[in-house]
Each structure stands twice: as C-alpha cells, then as structure tokens.
Amino acid sequence: MALMLDANFFIAVIAATIVSFVIGGLWYGPLFGKMWMAALGRTEADKEAMRKQAPKGFVVGLVGSFISSFVLGILLQYGRLANVGLPAGVGGGLVVGLLVWFGFPLFGTITGGIFEGRPGKLVGLNVSHTFVSFLAMGLVLGIWV
Is residue 66 in some structural domain? Predict the structure, then answer.
C-alpha cells in the first residue's frame, strides 16, 4: 500500500492546522495571556508594539501549524502502513502526536529557553502549548487519516 495524499488527507491536515492555530490564539490570549506577558516581562504599555508584530507571527504560526499537521499526517500513515502496532483512529493520532512532540519540540523549546535565559514559567507555558497543540493535531488526524 502507498500513502494516500488525497483530498481527505488534505482536509484533515487543514482541519488540524486550524485547530492548532485556534489553540495558540486561546493559549496566548484569554487562557494564559496575562501569565505569558508577565513571564516575558511585558506590560500593558507594550501591547501596541506587540500588536504591530502580530501579523508576522500569525503567518508564521499558521504555516508552522500546516507543516506540523502535514508531517504528523504522513507519520501517522507510515506508522499504520508499517504495521508497527499503532492504534487505529484517534488513539493512533494521539500516539503519533505525543511521540513527535516528545522527540522534537519538547527538548528544542527547553534547550532554547535555557540558553536564552528565559524564565521557567515561560518555558513551561510554551512547552505546554506545544504539547496540547500536537495532541490536538494528532487527534484530528487520527479521526480522518
């Protein structure tokens, strides 16, 4: 069997991208926005300057979410085709999301935070965001792919 990069696959990738993007907006907005700003050492006075940078951040975030969703979808399909014992459906998507998060963004984020001298609270907030985002993308992909 071959990978199925059909319309269904791309619909799943786009749905996972949107879910990830929305999680980011909620995470750094109403859910943990004040904590994030405090961990960055920013105040209400800094918000206007941050808003000017927001469009670039949104574009990069959306593209990054798409690429992450696409790669997770491919890995999920490969795992199923290789018969490595990956659970079917949502379970398989969650496993792939967790493994990819654990193997890549987790330690990259922590290492970068340490070298940049970021506060532990900020690193924890960012790591938690990527954890939730990768699990959510895996969940969506597990439903469709």
Answer: yes
Q: pTM to 2 decimals?
A: 0.94
- What is the C-alpha separation between 83 and 78, in angstroms, rounded? 9
CA distance 78 to 72: 10
**What would the pLDDT profile of 57-109 be if each residue is shown by its tens digit?**
999 999 999 999 999 999 999 998 898 888 989 999 999 999 999 999 999 99
Residue 1 lies in a domain: no
Distance of alpha carbon 35 from alpha carbon 42, whole angstroms: 10
- The token duo for 34 is 């004040």
Q: What angle do CA 116, 120, 125 make, to 5 degrees?
A: 100
- Per the CB < 8 A criterion, the answer to whether 69 and 137 are in contact is yes
The whole domain housing 90 covers 7-144
Q: How far is CA 68 from CA 22, 57, 100, 102, in A?
A: 14, 16, 9, 14
How many domains does the chain fold into?
A: 1
3-state secondary structure of 84: coil
Q: Is 107 helix (H, G, I), strand (E, B) or coil?
A: helix
**Whether the Cβ atoms of residue 97 and residue 68 lie closer than 8 Å to each other:** no
